Amino acid sequence: MEPGNVTQSSEFLLLGLSETPGQQPLLFGLFLSMYLITVLGNLLIILAISSDSHLHTPMYFFLSNLSLVDICFTSTTIPKMLVNIQTQSKAISYSGCLTQMHFFILFGGVDDFILTVMAYDRYVAICHPLHYTVIMNSQLCGLFVLLSWIMSAMNSLLQCLMVLDLSFCSDLEIPHFFCELKQVVQLACSNTFPNDIVMYFSAGLLGGGPLAGILYSYAKIMSSIRAIPSAQGKYKAFSTCASHLSVVFLFYGTSLGVYLGSVGTHSSQSSATASVMYTVVTPMLNPFIYSLRNKDIKRALERFLGR
User: Fold this and answer.
1) Helices vs strands, H then E, count in the chain
2) Phi and psi (nearest 5°) for 188?
3) Backbone angles phi, psi at 58, to 5 degrees
4) Are strands 11-14 and 173-174 parallel, antiparallel or unpaired?
5) How far apart are the first and last CA of the chain?
6) Cα–Cα distance measured from residue 29 to residue 82, given in angstroms and rounded to the nearest whole number
7) Buried-state track 86-121, b at ≥16 Cβ within 10 A, e below 16
8) How high is the pLDDT of residue 261?
9) What sign has the CA pseudo-torsion 132, 137, 138, 143?
10) Which of 22, 42, 74, 173 has the smallest number of CB atoms closer than 10 Å to its CB?
11) Is the dihedral of CA 181, 154, 287, 128 positive or negative?
């Protein structure tokens, strides 16, 4: 089969999570419900934080940014999936696929960086409480968020520009419910070695780097907590980072589970099903984790909804 450059009029086919017609209404209802819960839950977190002056602190500034990114992250993939199910079409244009891929990598990267910044925020709050307000000033917080967007945008742009150089054969079926970078690259007929190198290098640098930062921050936090003499003091210190730690475990646990699992299996369909955990389930659960475990957020939500 001769490779041919894909033009913008060409289409990829998203095979989705299941090709069984009887399961499509169930998938549509399930993912529509999860998407609406994700958007509503994260939007409530943003509105509650913005409406309560007591929550205008670095920790909640980062949390509101995380909620915004989670809304964008799920909005990159789920609406297109729902449209395809409703219209009984699997097609996505070449330009649409690249656009989806770009924003998926962008928002996923920003999510990753903000979780890292939140870990650093907890590290400063617990290990250097007397200098917290000086270190975590508004300028530094804004700079952290700005750098998160810039680095993620540069990585996303690089990955998509490299995909533009690839040639594709006539088999353009993606065994996924969105245009996942690795799946798209595997469809190429041309040499994908440079893409693979950049893909794994950026995953190691922009994925492993933030994870190392989070682990280092929490190692220092645990060391400081152990030095607190009273059990009540230890509990109070740990409770301030319990919600964030839960979200980190959920995000990295599901992400690493998907990609490590894909190494041991040749089933792209099972990988697509597993990826639902970090693309849909994790952003949906984040508001519940923060609202159920955080008294300040609870009170802010009660005041906001009680208006």
Assistant:
1) 13, 3
2) -70, 145
3) -55, -45
4) parallel
5) 64
6) 9
7) eeeebebebeebbebbbbbbbbbbbbbbbbbbbbbb
8) 62
9) negative
10) 22
11) positive
**Exposure string (b/e) for 150-169, b if CB count within 10 Å is 16 or more?**
ebbeebbeebbebbeebebe
The answer to whether 175 and 269 are in contact (CB under 8 A) is yes
Give the number of other Cβ atoms within 10 Å of residue 237's Cβ.
19
What the block records as the tokens of 180 is: 């996942």
Cβ proximity of 16 and 83 under 8 Å: no
| Percentage of the chain lying above the pLDDT 90 cut | 60
Residue count (the chain): 307
For residue 93, the SS3 value is: strand
In one-letter notation, the amino acid at residue 36 is L
The rounded distance, in Å, linking the Cα atoms of 65 and 297 is 15
Helix axes 78-87, 58-75, angle to 10 degrees: 20
SS3 192: coil
At 191 the three-state DSSP class reads coil
Q: What is the pTM of this model?
A: 0.92
Q: Answer yes or no: are the C-beta atoms of 98 and 160 closer than 8 Å.
A: yes
Q: Which residue has the tokens 């964030």?
A: 244
What are the residue ranges in the chain where pLDDT is below 70? Answer: 1-9, 258-270, 307
Q: Which two tokens stand for residue 29?
A: 């209802």
Residue type, 167: S
Q: What is the model's pLDDT at position 304?
A: 85
Rounded to whole angstroms, the Cα distance separating 94 from 115 reads 32
Round to whole Å and give the CA distance between 262 and 292.
33
Q: For residue 165, which phi and psi values (nearest 5 degrees)?
A: -85, -10
SS3 170: coil
Q: Which helix (H) or strand (E) holds 12?
A: strand 11-14
Picking from 109, 207, 101, the residue whose alpha carbon sits closest to that of residue 152 is 109
- Supply φ then ψ for residue 15, to 5 degrees: -75, -20
